[in-house]
Amino acid sequence: MAHYLAMGSIPPKRHTQHRRPASGEAPGELYYEELMGEEGFSSDSSLLYHRNIPSTTIASAVWELPDQSTTPNHPLVPRHLKLHDLFDAAAVAGTDVVTGRRLVLGNGDVRISYVVAGAPSPWYRNGIGDECVYVERGRARVETVFGAFEVAEGDYVVIPRATTHRWIPEPSDTDPLRAYCIEANSHIAPPKRYLSKYGQLLEHAPYCERDLRQPDGPLLAEHVGESPDAQTDVLIKHRGNGPGGVVGTVHTLPFHPLDVVGWDGCLYPYVFNVRDFEPITGRIHQPPPVHQVFEGWNFVICNFVPRKVDYHPLAIPVPYYHSNVDSDEIMFYVDGDYEARKGSGIGRGSVSVHPGGHPHGPQPGATEGSIGVEGFDELAVMVDTFRPLELGEGGRAVDDGRYAMSWSRGAAGSGGAHSEG
Predict the structure, then answer these.
(1) In Å, how far from its chain's centre is CA 260?
(2) What secondary structure letter does DSSP report for 214?
(3) Sign of the four-CA dihedral 47, 125, 175, 137
(4) Taking Cα atoms as reference points, which of 179, 397, 147 lies closest to residue 268?
(5) CB within 8 A of 90, min separation 6: which ones?
(6) For 189, which DSSP code?
(7) Pfam families recorded for this chain (predicted)?
(8) What is the pTM of this model?
(9) SS3 for 362-411, per residue?
(10) What is the pLDDT of residues 388-419, one digit of tens each?
């Protein structure tokens, strides 16, 4: 994030002495300064002041990651993946957001996983790229070295690469934490066209800085009722020769990771709620880029929110059939009314996979049925990738196997309204 924040105890000048409170006449010991910066320290960065040397480890071991293998979508077909079938209700209490993720789709630029969690996660950092975690349902506390967030339904949690953090779900028998995890091999940021040359969100952007929630910090071990000297394991996802080029390591620290007394800069985690996205509408159908919320290298993230639709007197509110020739389109259906998919099996918790090279659009009858509709009551998160996605073990496990034929069944039948997919 490009705007500057400062939290906690920092010195007046960067890269100068910053000491603990003096003990008697002797000066206090120095805090340890860490510069956390992107793109070889030529882009956004933050300075963190630690009680302990941040490089310290006393042991390391292999973290055996969940299955990261992928299978090509070949022969090329559109697919329907039923994510709500991935987790047995009885197992949720012992599942956490970090180790419990199941890989749904992935390529060399981005991996999409899903998890339903009831247990606190280990401390974790992703050393490969930024993460954008969409909270589908439930509530949690996310604790990071920058501070903490209380997150709930509809929140995007954007966590920069190498940020040590953990997820603590709020217990619930009826509404467990459901998280849709987008892991980049790059950074994730607002689209460049929304930003001034200095990084301010512009007037035409569908959200602004006021909509972004900052971490509540600084956060120290004693603030969460834990010992600053507690030996702690941190799970690290990093580049290697495993499936998808991803491997895991566990580092053991001789202290608690929450030891940052202060920090400042333009690189930090933040939260944005989908309900604060202001949809861009028009007299005729608006193309998917108006729904974009974030971007990474070779992929974009869009969201489709409840909105007024096309108001030209001859408008057809549902999208035309389209071939996105450069992208795979991955739509995660979160909430609302998906009448345009009636007869296809799509519903809440579904993911549709529309691969590049295959034209797609509304189900039969939906085009005519949408005429005269004034608004769409739908909520979905879409990821478009500019390299083909392959199926992970989670995606393979819940592929309904029938979706590709859904445009053929009842081609002259009736349908309803809307949806971009």
Answers:
(1) 25
(2) P
(3) positive
(4) 147
(5) none
(6) B
(7) HgmA_C
(8) 0.94
(9) CCCCHHHHHCCCCEECEEEEEEEECCCCEEEHHHHHCECCCHHHCCCCCC
(10) 999 999 999 999 999 988 888 654 433 333 44
